[in-house]
C-alpha cells in the first residue's frame, strides 16, 4: 500500500510539473530559438567551418608534401651515398692498380738494369780478353824480336863472321815458326 501511494504521488508530481512547465514555456520562443540556432549553424558552416576545414586541408597537404620532399631527399641522399661509396671503391681499386703497376714496372726496370749490367760485364770481359790476347801477341812478338836479336848476336859471335842481319832474321823467324808449329 505504501508502494501504491508513492507511485500515485510521483504520478501527481509529474503531471503537476509538466503542467507548470507547459505554462512557463512559450511555443514562439522555442521556434525563434531553433530558427536562430539553425541560421547560426549555417553561417558558422559557411564562414567559419568551411574556411577552417580549407585551412586544415591546406595544412594537411603541406605536411604531406613536406613528408614526400623529405622522403625524396632521403632517397636522393641514399643514392648519393651509394655513388660516393662506389666512387671511393673505384678510387681504391685504381690506387691499388697504380701501386701494383708501379711495382711491376720497378721490377721490370730492375730486371732490365741487371740484364744491362750483365751485358756490360760480359762485353767488358770480352774486351779485356781480346786486349789480353792482343797484348799477349804483342809480348810474344816482342820476345821473338828480342830472341831474334839475341840469336843473331850469338850466332855472329859463334861464327865469327858477320851475317847480314836480314838473312839471320829470316833464318831465326823461320826457326821460331817451326818451333811454334811443333808445339
TrEMBL record:
Coiled coil: 74-112
Cellular localisation: Cell membrane; Endomembrane system
Pfam families in the record: ATP-synt_B
Keywords carried by this UniProt record: ATP synthesis, Cell membrane, CF(0), Coiled coil, Hydrogen ion transport, Ion transport, Membrane, Transmembrane, Transmembrane helix, Transport
Keyword Acetylation included in the entry's annotation: no
UniProt key word Transmembrane helix: yes
Topology of the protein relative to the lipid bilayer: Single-pass membrane protein
Transmembrane segment boundaries: 30-49
InterPro entries for this protein: ATP_synth_B-like_membr_sf, ATP_synth_b/b'su_bac/chlpt, ATP_synth_F0_bsu_bac, ATP_synthase_B_chain
NCBIfam families membership: ATP_synt_b (TIGR01144)
Assembly mode: F-type ATPases have 2 components, F(1) - the catalytic core - and F(0) - the membrane proton channel. F(1) has five subunits: alpha(3), beta(3), gamma(1), delta(1), epsilon(1). F(0) has three main subunits: a(1), b(2) and c(10-14). The alpha and beta chains form an alternating ring which encloses part of the gamma chain. F(1) is attached to F(0) by a central stalk formed by the gamma and epsilon chains, while a peripheral stalk is formed by the delta and b chains.
Job description of the protein: Component of the F(0) channel, it forms part of the peripheral stalk, linking F(1) to F(0). F(1)F(0) ATP synthase produces ATP from ADP in the presence of a proton or sodium gradient. F-type ATPases consist of two structural domains, F(1) containing the extramembraneous catalytic core and F(0) containing the membrane proton channel, linked together by a central stalk and a peripheral stalk. During catalysis, ATP synthesis in the catalytic domain of F(1) is coupled via a rotary mechanism of the central stalk subunits to proton translocation.
Name of the protein described by the UniProt record: ATP synthase subunit b
Native species: Sporosarcina contaminans
